[in-house]
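note to self: dont lose this again. the chain is below, predicted strucutre after it. 490 aa total, dont forget to put it in the shared folder this time
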Amino acid sequence: MDEEKVIVFIHPDLGIGGAERLVVDAAVGLQNLGHTVQIWTSHCDPAHCFDECRDGTLKVVVRGNRFPTSILGRFSILCAIVRQLDLITYFLLEDPDRASATDLFFVDQLSVCVPILRYFLQGSRTLFYCHFPDKLLASRKSILKSIYRIPFDWIEGYTTGLADGIVVNSKFTAGVFKEAFPRINVVPRVVYPCVDVNEDERGHTKLEGEKYPFLKGGDRKIVLSINRFERKKNIGLVVNAFAGLTEEQRKKARLIVAGGYDNRVVENVDYHGELEKLCDSLNLRHATCRNYISSLTIPSDIDVLFLPSVPSSLKSFLLRTASVLAYTPENEHFGIVPLEAMLAGTPVLATNTGGPLETVLDDGETGWLRPPEPTEWTQILDVALFKITDDERTALGERAKSRVKENFSKESMAAALQSEFEILDKTRRRLIGFHDVMMPVIVSTVVVAGLLVGVGRTDWAYVCGFMGGGVYATFGLFTMLAKDMNPRIG
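---
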């Protein structure tokens, strides 16, 4: 793909998160290779997005934000689909000439727009990036919720399978993908996420180390955990492992638990409380620092320090000064924090599951991979904190940095994506027709109507049927309108 291409990214909400970081890095990387790149999204708040999205580095177009993200805290997947359909309607009709000039689409998280893009823009190619199947992330706490998810799970599999190409973020996710969607005959390839390897070369201020009193002195070695305060992150594993060290060892070390935290999220609040109770049960002295003022009152002899919503500058400082990063999640899809730690020269201790199997080299090469058993983790903490020499630690850090720079840079990811697009340029899956696009609507209508009849609500079943027929007819009119506005579409 030597010539310049027009590449459009379709992403639901361009906030701050791992998926958004990947999209931004991929867009910047492809743009640096000489391609014209745009990101189309339903939401992007300048006060809550990455710098590249607000400083002019990337062209971000926000459309289709007219519908809510949920209804009374529910129906989020339904609202997400409606919002993406609204976004794609804007894309196709606002400037049809620009739409028809698009060579390549990068779609992630939500695949419902894939058949629509392929139907109207037959000359374009569509690549779907699967972070992890949504059907496996959705909660099913009741029979009703499981039934509710049936049509949406089917829609996800059906529309994902219509993409010209599919890539995933790790070999682990590739295996999960094939189990989740056995009917999709496209073999997903792996394009790893990346970190900004140039950040390590820009130098860092010591401001954070001087600002927070509990970071002064540097006499205690730091075991660092960075994760959202969620139960699935299994932070209790490292708390138990740290408690397994001898009392004399704990006097020379400290566990810092940092990560995403929102007072509005019940699980964040509850899980923080659970971790505090766990510390109490293990006789570990603990404290929570929420801001600079609260940091002034933290005792110097605490064993565990909680840092909810840690600032990025402090996070960077901790990654560079920690003796070991303890990455506790099991079966994590990929895991960007281990890469950030290795780039900072910090060894990583992670569970021998999921993404870390592909990023962390075991047995002290760049870190350690162990089963999620506290006793085994305690043994590695003993080695990482007290047994390896300074020279061994320096050599380990250099190996870790080299691995990240060679395999997980922005340039590596952009080159891998460009290779995927080159493959799509040379191949073409079957063209899809009107009924292929409308199949999700038909199936959803039939399923929901059948469920309503099953619970005795035939009146609502009729309403559902009429709505499905209305959508079918409306999309037919939309098809004629789009082609009338620009005959090159379709």
